[in-house]
From TrEMBL:
Enzyme class, spelled out: hydrolase
NCBIfam families in alphabetical order: exoDNase_III (TIGR00195), xth (TIGR00633)
Enzyme Commission number(s) from the entry: 3.1.11.2
Cross-referenced InterPro entries: AP_endonuc_1 (IPR004808), Endo/exonu/phosph_ase_sf (IPR036691), Endo/exonuclease/phosphatase (IPR005135), ExoIII-like (IPR037493)
Cofactor list: Mg(2+)
Family statement: Belongs to the DNA repair enzymes AP/ExoA family.
Stretch forming the signal peptide: none
Pfam families: Exo_endo_phos
Source organism of the structure: Novosphingobium tardum
Protein name as it appears in the record: Exodeoxyribonuclease III
UniProt keyword Magnesium, yes or no: yes
MF terms (GO), sorted A to Z: double-stranded DNA 3'-5' DNA exonuclease activity
Keyword tags: Hydrolase, Magnesium, Metal-binding
Residue ranges occupied by any Endonuclease/exonuclease/phosphatase domain in the UniProt entry: 5-249
Length: 258
């Protein structure tokens, strides 16, 4: 069985003890990280190697940043960054081959405040992501595009529709762009296994959101048809959000037949 997980860690150095804890306790085959908030030279690869994980990463000082870790094997990098905008210097995308599948780790732009340039950037980025995912589909590669999409796909994916209605995560344009990915033939693994919704991956640090379970689902794993056929399960490691000095996200994962 192959377990591919995603964790927006919200600062890899600040939360390294929590991250190492999660890796050792749940032992995903592949772990995709977002918001590592570390320059390339500062990424703590040696700490992961001590517990058996090899890594590739695309860092940026102070914010953004993505990484792919693999248990007992080295991910083979295929791409870093998305084509289509030579001026985009944000570290938000990295893609690799590992264990016979293609894994793309993404940190999609938040887009707030909206309307405005940040929201426009989000929508352009989603268009570029769709172009890349179409290339993967055309090549019939068994692929998972996993990470923090910063999109609440449906009303069932938030604790409160009115509370989130003004947010970029839930605008019709954001939802439409996400729906187009699914319409291209990708499977939302977590939604497939939780069709009634009510499954959150993010709880804000403010206003007692965690204590009151005021969360929403913005971390997703989209599987190509070649990989969706191998899907066994999908879930969220919710308890890790409640630990000391936790990220505001909980890890999510999919399990696949070998």
């Amino acid at each position: 069985m192959l377990k591919v997980a995603s964790f927006n860690i919200n600062g890899v150095k600040a939360r390294l003890p929590r991250l190492l804890e999660w890796l050792e306790e749940t032992r995903p085959s592949v772990a995709c990280l977002q918001e590592i908030k570390s320059q390339d030279e500062g990424f703590p690869a040696a700490e992961f190697e001590k517990i058996g994980y090899q890594a590739i990463w695309h860092g940026q000082k102070g914010f953004n940043g993505v990484a792919i870790l693999a248990d007992g094997s080295a991910p083979v990098e295929v791409h870093r960054g998305l084509a289509g905008d030579p001026d985009d210097e944000h570290a938000r995308y990295i893609e690799a081959d590992i264990f016979g599948i293609r894994v793309a780790c993404i940190y999609l732009p938040n887009g707030n405040p909206q309307p405005g340039p940040k929201f426009d950037y989000k929508l352009r980025w989603m268009g570029r992501l769709r172009d890349r995912m179409r290339e993967l589909r055309a090549a019939e590669i068994p692929a998972v595009v996993i990470g923090d999409y910063n999109v609440i796909p449906q009303d069932k994916d938030t604790w409160s529709v009115p509370a989130m209605a003004p947010d970029a995560l839930m605008q019709p344009e954001s939802r439409d762009a996400f729906a187009r990915l699914l319409n291209d033939g990708w499977t939302d693994a977590l939604d497939l296994h939780n069709p009634r919704g009510g499954v959150w991956t993010f709880w804000d640090y403010q206003a007692g959101a965690w204590q009151r379970d005021h969360g929403f689902r913005i971390d997703h794993a989209l599987l190509s048809p070649e990989l969706a056929d191998r899907l066994v399960g999908a879930g969220v490691d919710k308890a890790y959000r409640g630990r000391e000095k936790a990220s505001d996200h909980a890890p999510m994962w999919v399990t696949l037949r070998d």
